[in-house]
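Interim report, section 4.2 (structural modelling).
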Amino acid sequence: MEVLKTLEDLQNIRKNIKGSVGFVPTMGALHNGHISLIKKAREENDIVIVSIFVNPTQFLPGEDLDAYPRKDEADKKICSMCKVDYIFMPEISTMYTKEEVLVKAPNNSYVLEGKTRPGHFDGVLQVVLKLFNLVQPTNAYFGKKDAQQLSLIQQMVRNFFLPINIIPCEIVREEDGLAMSSRNVYLSAQQRSDAVLISKSLYMAGNLISKGERNSQVVKNKIYDVMSPLDVEYVAVVDRNFNEIETIEPKNTIILVVARFGNTRLLDNFWL
Amino acid sequence: MEVLKTLEDLQNIRKNIKGSVGFVPTMGALHNGHISLIKKAREENDIVIVSIFVNPTQFLPGEDLDAYPRKDEADKKICSMCKVDYIFMPEISTMYTKEEVLVKAPNNSYVLEGKTRPGHFDGVLQVVLKLFNLVQPTNAYFGKKDAQQLSLIQQMVRNFFLPINIIPCEIVREEDGLAMSSRNVYLSAQQRSDAVLISKSLYMAGNLISKGERNSQVVKNKIYDVMSPLDVEYVAVVDRNFNEIETIEPKNTIILVVARFGNTRLLDNFWL
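Predicted structure of the assembly:
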């Protein structure tokens, strides 16, 4: 495994790769969710490249850019154990200059996460586009936990005609059901214990739907019930284009929940 | 020569090209300026692809999108004579969907053309990025007449790490000096005759500078003098980053002029 820091290093390596390239872009602090993406990339490609870059443009002023967990040495060990071929680990000054041509998320994406964090997705799309152009992957792997992000990246690939396959990957959970996230380390013991209600509420919703319930409001009420001890930011029932829907359509519905624990926002979701 | 209409046609052709690809993106109504780009592309590449697409997103409301000259059959003949390999001539619905991930020109680009036509460069960069990703050219050819556009495309290539060489090409002029433009057809006989003052003013400016003048204001005054019969929109002396400069620096200066003839804006410039 080789750690690449500069554009030139990455570009020189990329030029000489003949086979398929699997790419897993990350902000580091790798957990089992990331590992599942890397393992899938390893199975499906000749070469696997992981990027580790805490991207400043996707953090809003006042968010946790400085506090975001950095675990470079542990991350390298994890990548090495997962038989990653190359880690790309650039400096901010390698990725950005002062004034830049920008990427802007579609006007209709300013809902849910796009509403709570206006500009967040612009930064995500900007860095993902840069990384895609550098790495030129055959396949790129993203977790379903960041559902709206995944959807917007898929849309960017379609809109910009990028010759890349986006591979959505299942959410990986702790034993009690909590969706894995690098931000789970921010939780106190009490918050960590309360957080189980997030996934539990989705599990109960799934149960209701499997018994035939199709009314979004009834399902949302159930989720709010289960999460009532928590500070719930939103519960939404949307189609694959992130339009809210009143009637649940099997195979075209995502149920999204966000709960706050102090400054920490935890996302979870369930795809039908 | 083959005319390609769909994404699939272009993508299938592109997959099987092994050598270098020279790309000339145009809005059609080809004149000697375009022909010079195509000839250069022909000399320098194995395969030459020209796109003809009147891009709606770079026209502002009230601009000449509908009136913009369309000359598809003449354009095809010109391309054929210039030994172009493929013309890509998509429909609007092939290039765009309803809600899109957008490209946004840098915040400091809202000067000169960016100020007169806010949003214009967003549309230019959006379509050029789409075309670049489809055509995947080795070299892409742009005229210096649209100097700010050229500079922003070069910046997009740097910012997004696109593996493409941008080749700036000299302005081609009519015998009396008027810079070639598809919009010259809008001019009345009187306007066409008056328009010679635009290039003449730049020629006089060049003369002054070659005699040692370095004061931007003195040079601008000379240009305004020569163009005094015209409706001059702006005269600007800028560096290669389009920052206005008070002192002319050889090898890092562009002198830009825009004059209005009714609704028609004619651009010209001179690079030191």
